[in-house]
Amino acid sequence: MIAPDLFEEPAGATPLDEEDRAGLIPTWVATRGDLNRAEHANIVKALVWTESRGGPHSLGALLKESTMRALHRRMFNEVWKWAGDYRHHNTTIGGDWPYISTQLCDLLADVDFQTREPDRLPWSPDELAVRFHHRLVVIHPFPNGNGRHARLAADLLVSLLGEPVFTWGADDLSEAGSVRQTYLDTLRRADRTREFAPLVSFARS
To answer: Which residue of 45, 95, 133, 146 has the fewest CB atoms within a 10 Å radius of its CB?
Structure first.
């Protein structure tokens, strides 16, 4: 029996519409806890892929639209049929869906240009990666999982720039709580003021 909380999203997350919900793959998932466990197991496999021979091990490999889609697909392909596919409707977060590919390619081109001379970055590696993460969240390419996708993409970028991966508050940000709220607050502050220092500090906390 499906629990009524199965598709309840924590604060700040984009709710799935009926068509997206129908893309759930595991038949054993009946509760929100089941869904969280299934997605976590899938993301662990994606992390293994990023470290494998086939993973993106250079800036050139990472900063491709196909890689951004492949990363999302690897993170969620055992849970959602639409993993790696762009959303086909507007949501409360993100721009108009027909322009997702253009916006994402613009972002990747910008970061590619910014990182061509690693010793002359426009910001610190941490801030550059956090700004990348922020713009990915703003674009919101996929029906769900955008925050987790953007955080992993930022981790890969900052690592390729020679810094440790972020800790993101040392908590599970897919779960409601004070740490998630702090994360959302720093994202919204960056939206309003273009101040990224609080988000950088959070990413390293």
So the answer is: 45
